[in-house]
Automatic annotation (TrEMBL):
InterPro entries to which the protein is assigned, alphabetical: Pectin_lyas_fold (IPR012334), Pectin_lyase_fold/virulence (IPR011050), Pectinesterase_cat (IPR000070)
Full protein name: pectinesterase
PANTHER family: ACYL-COA THIOESTER HYDROLASE YBHC-RELATED (PTHR31321), PECTINESTERASE CATALYTIC DOMAIN-CONTAINING PROTEIN (PTHR31321:SF99)
Superkingdom: Eukaryota
Length: 342
């Protein structure tokens, strides 16, 4: 025999009060949605037009929903336009692409720093604002996609702000695909394709479950290898660094795990599955020269044929699980800001 009891208003209020701490820490709400459709069935045909509609000094999350399609344009989120959620319909369906590139030798441009005008102005997508989120969208620079005999810097994206997250996005280029320049950033389940320094900058970022894909041709430069990362620290003790947590590194050609843009570079691979694309020495000193003691290049718990550390450079760091915890814990770059995003 079933018993049925009417729930009183008092009981409902008590339950809501008990749940209030959890409810109050829920994801942030979105105040409005702007739709972009290349076929003219939305509010705008171009993504930049939608961005321009967001008022300067914005403090409420605005969703820019980009319907499936390929959008040939350069898109910039200026620093005055925070709290934007850029949302596609899957990185294999929604893509922003352009073919801008730098002029001049790679070495000269890199020595000028990530802020060299010719470098960062090549980005297909740039975000300078704090508090930004992107989901399910692709950013591509097509300049070096066919002819790699005379490649130059051609950024897919420049990320230059605080509290920025990318979820299930794709970044595609060849040389300098992703300029992870400054600030605290989180990349979750993203795909990043490139050949030379395809993730570089000064930022403090966790790449969580991301797929890194080398697209160096098999006959590129008579067996010449590329570099997945080129990180630089501002000074000794700088909290920045690139941390790859889970995920995999695969593709074609040969890749060093990274090279030191300066002597304070910090890159950690943690439980990453590495294919045989990895060069046995693993790391290169580059601008650190002989001053490699301060560079922190480490691998912990990685798997796959490329994870064999027997022939790594002698100055690579050997961290224990306890020592690597401060890098792989979310507190490395998150003090609660991720839970305040939509």
């Amino acid at each position: 025999m079933e018993c049925h009891r009417t729930v009183s208003l008092v009981e409902v209020v008590v339950v809501l009060l008990l749940l209030w701490p959890a409810l109050s820490s829920a994801w942030a709400p979105v105040s409005r949605t702007i739709t972009v459709d290349s076929k003219g069935r939305g509010d705008f045909r171009s993504i930049q037009s939608a961005v321009n509609l967001v008022p300067d000094g914005n403090r409420e999350w605005v969703r820019i929903h980009v319907r499936a399609g390929r959008y040939r344009e350069k898109v910039t989120i200026p620093k005055e336009k925070g709290y934007i959620l850029l949302e596609g319909e899957g990185h294999s369906s929604t893509e922003i692409y352009f073919d801008d590139h730098a002029h001049g030798s790679t070495d000269r441009l890199m020595r000028r720093g990530a802020d060299a005008m010719q470098t960062y102005e090549t980005a297909t997508f740039s975000v300078h604002a704090n508090d930004f989120v992107a989901r399910d969208i692709a950013f591509t620079n097509t300049h070096n996609s066919v002819n790699k005999s005379r490649v130059t810097q051609a950024l897919a994206a420049l990320v230059d702000g605080e509290r920025i997250a990318f979820h299930r996005c794709a970044f595609s280029g060849f040389e300098d695909t992703l300029c992870d320049n400054t600030g605290r950033h989180y990349f979750r389940e993203c795909v990043i394709k490139g050949g030379v320094d395809f993730i570089f900058g000064y930022a403090r970022s966790i790449y969580d479950g991301c797929t890194l894909v080398s697209n160096i041709p098999r006959r590129y430069g008579r067996g010449r290898a590329g570099w997945v990362t080129a990180h630089a620290g501002q000074h000794a003790g700088d909290p920045g660094g690139f941390v790859f947590k889970g995920g995999e590194l695969r593709g074609t050609g040969r890749q060093y795990l990274g090279r030191a843009w300066n002597k304070y570079a910090t890159v950690v691979y943690y439980h990453v599955n590495m294919s045989s694309v990895v060069v046995p020495r693993g790391w290169a000193p580059w601008h650190a020269g002989n001053e490699t003691n301060d560079a922190l290049f480490a691998e912990v718990g990685c798997t796959g044929p490329g994870s064999d550390m027997a022939r790594r450079v002698p100055w690579a760091k050997h961290l224990t699980e306890a020592e690597v915890e401060k890098f792989v814990d979310m507190s490395f770059m998150d003090d609660g800001w991720l839970s305040k995003q939509p």
